Amino acid sequence: MGRVLVWLITAISFLTLPQPALSAPKYAIAMQGEPALPPDYTHFSYVNPDAPKGGNITYCVVGSFDNLNPFILKSLRTTARGMMDTIFGNLVFEPLMQRSADEAFTLYGLLAASADMDPERKSIEFHLDPKAKWSDGQPVTPEDVLFTYDAYTQKGRPPYSDRMARIAKLEKTGDHSVRFTFNDKADREFPLIIALTPIIPRHAFAMDTFDRTTLKPLIGSGPYTIAQVQPGQRVVFKRNPDYWGKDVPAKRGFDNYDQITIEYFLNANAKLEAFKKGLCAIDDDGDPVKRERDLDFPAFHKGDVVSETFDTGIPPVVTGFLFNTRLPKFSNPVVRRALGMLYDFEWANKNLFGGKYARTMSYWQNSELSALGHPADDREKALLAPYPGRVPSDVMDGTWRPPVTDGSGQDRKVLKTAFDLLKSIGYHLQGGTMLDPDGKPFGFEIMTSSQDEERLAGIYQRTLEKIGINVTIRSLDGDQIQSRKQRFDFEVLVGSSGFNNSLSPGIEQIGRWSSNAAKTEGSFNLAGVADPAIDAAIEAMLRARSKEDYVAAVRVLDRLLISGNYMVPMQYNTQQWLAYWNYLEHPKKTPIFGYQLPSWWRKPN
């Protein structure tokens, strides 16, 4: 009896001790602050919840494909668009929670109706919607979530393959629930990344063949199924009439077409001609001068084709000439800084873009996250203290700007400044040819995938030739470009390089700029950036608990990227532009992330 009494007293004492606070399951989670929409929200504010369903649409893209599995590395060409797609929608595969396009980073329930995240973000438990089903009618289960992470870890591609490295435990906690417990490698954003990870069905994939390319229609939980595949040419998706999520608030007003076709074309000119003939529903040319010229055709003049611009609230896409710093010729930041002076934006803007562009100078331009116009505060200085001299004074005080030319295409002052910088580290001219410190001719190849990129590369080429730098331009198709990028087999790329930055940068910055990603084949660190200061800035950004610390860390990252001269920024226009056939309609409100094609619909006949 004595031992029983002692046990009872001990148990009662334990129960009366303060226990860790558990948050109630939430319908939505936000990176910072609280979700904008209330628990009883019925739809996102930028959709028409009563949009009519029906009809079909054809989207057109340049390139080809030989694979339907978007989660593997081994693809000879590229994965078909639409499977998991930021533009056309996640037609086949879905994540646990759905991102709102009108908030910096907030997720609302989807496959998981709710989530229970502890205040320190050391764990998160997802409660699957009991109604969630795969397209073949089988239920979505915790076992599917566990299988997803096994498949990604063993045979997936970055970034999916890296996520288990931050997870201490993944366990089923109920018939419809699964919990992730994180280790010390995880950060405060990571629970949201887990919530955005697409889930795949255990019964529809075999682990031993998961990493092989396939053209067999795959089973997903999304609103569409694959109806037809013509390799390299066409994918047809049909809306699933039994789609489980059609009444989920985060999906109301989306997925309005009965059929979506994605057609592939060899080049942009062929795609444009198809649009003019009515085969393609939408054209999204980014060149304001070219698109005005291209709209000179009968259907536009008759009003059958509509031209419209959409305002966004996010930093502009960063475009430019990206250096592969893995190569010795680009390993010196002074060389990259000199080369960065020699893109004549003023000439290009006047002669190619009708003066409608602004110069790209920051990776988070026009936002509070940008280093431009913001002197480094004490938080930033503390983050940079272990890396003295990494950021020039004008970048630290926010006054840095790229050189402004006279717009003539041959501004001698700028040319001399760049030449003198190269000369200061041992480069010199001999017989009109720039020689490096070892006496070898200095030059490089720019890889392009379109006529527009060739034209921009030609501008840069002509300027560089004026100081003896020999530049060649190699034009490849989209599949070849993708393959070369995956292997980091290039010298200079021209284009956006995937730098679509947001108001809530996070874990994607690891894939773009971290030392580890620089060594990982298939990562987005195309420039090969391997800098401990950048690694530290990204870590500080991901671990920040206050908005002030977060903003400071992102600004430090911006200052380091600007200082590193990893690319030669070009130009931007914050407005999105579309031309589309007038049988389409869209919601009145444009969210901060811009137009959302999955929320458009076809006018009823």
TrEMBL record:
InterPro entries: Peptide/Ni-bd, SBP_5, SBP_5_dom
Residues spanning the signal sequence: 1-23
Record keyword Signal present: yes
One Pfam family recorded for the sequence: SBP_bac_5
Domain Solute-binding protein family: 107-501
Keyword Metal-binding: no
SUPFAM superfamilies: Periplasmic binding protein-like II
Coiled-coil ranges from the UniProt annotation: none
Record localization: Periplasm
Keywords in alphabetical order: Signal
Primary location group: periplasm
CDD domains reported for this sequence: MbnE-like
Family: Belongs to the bacterial solute-binding protein 5 family.
Family matches, as PANTHER family: ABC TRANSPORTER PERIPLASMIC BINDING PROTEIN, PERIPLASMIC BINDING COMPONENT OF ABC TRANSPORTER
Name the record gives this protein: Extracellular solute-binding protein
Species annotation: Mesorhizobium opportunistum
Source species taxonomy: Bacteria, Pseudomonadati, Pseudomonadota, Alphaproteobacteria, Hyphomicrobiales
